[in-house]
Amino acid sequence: MKIYFDGCSMTRGGLFLGKNWETDRWSKILCDKLGAEEYNYADGGGSNQRILRQLTTHNIKDYDLAIIQLTMPERLEYHDGNIFQKISPSISLNSKKINNLNWFWNTYYKQVYHDAYGDAMEKMVYDSVKCICAVNKVPLVLMSGWHDTKLSYDLMITSKIFDGKYDPVGGTRPHYDAHPDVLSQPFIADDIINFINITSVL
């Protein structure tokens, strides 16, 4: 069985899980438990638009199951002429990350962007992901890592449900990392397996 994964850092994992993050992340644990092949296309800081674009550029029919995690709606992406670039309110404050276009994105987030737009875009991606998987007859588990979503998801991955962790910053004051910690990863995998079994997704 081949499983397609996409999402943000909640699905990709990263160094917040330690040096063995690729084997300790919930998608790998889930695949090991199901005897499945893991195809994880998630990207830290990625947007819902990116997730939808990825789904339309991969042949979803090649997979037996899709597990997709949407993220906070204010994240966007743009093409700089060479590659797609991630953008969010936090990235817009750092001009080095966005080729000195921070003036534009700061203006965008302060004067143009509205939560109603973000909610509408989230709903558009939410419905599109469901429709693409349905028309291709690929079972879907649709999740979110956005704690303020107004939509109904199969499962949620947030720090309100799974523990984050406190890490030392500069060796002195603690810094809270809201990503589910390494101890939470097996629980996320088990929750998805339980959902699959209860709902007969497969």
Description:
It is built from seven helices and nine strands; from the N terminus they run E-H-H-H-E-H-E-E-E-H-H-E-E-E-E-H. The protein has helices spanning 9-12, 21-24, 26-34, 48-57, 102-112, 115-135, 185-199; strands spanning 2-6, 37-40, 65-70, 76-79, 84-87, 140-144, 155-156, 165-169, 173-177. Helix 3 crosses helix 7 (185-199) and helix 4 runs parallel beside helix 6. The relative contact order is 0.17.
Count of separate DSSP helical elements: 7
Q: Write down the secondary-structure element order.
A: EHHHEHEEEHHEEEEH
What is the straight-line distance between the termini?
Answer: 11 Å
Helix content: 25-40%
Provide the gyration radius in Å.
17 Å
Mean pLDDT: 90
Outline? globular
Strand content: 15-25%
